[in-house]
Amino acid sequence: MLIEVLLSGSTELEEVPDYVLGELLARNRVKGFRRSSGWVVVGRDPIRQAKTEYYPGPERRRRRKGSCMTCPDMVGGKCVNSSCPEYLCNAKVFT
Questions:
Q1: What DSSP state is assigned to residue 57?
Q2: CA 8, CA 42: separation in Å to the nearest integer?
């Protein structure tokens, strides 16, 4: 998808592919760009930050409880293996 962009040091709009916009933003080459909701002015309006490769803090996401549909311990949508770490007190996982 092409995005309208006003580059730093320019007065004319350019269209750039969406995957290029992030690189231009990282290099501080963009004054503004058009979103579906309107124009974004860099430095004034909120924009996404580049994702970091590594998070040094503790893991806070919950581990998925339940098994896949092909698990041999799933009977009628319930885990029947009480020694399985995914066991949920025989709670129904799939309906």
A1: S
A2: 10
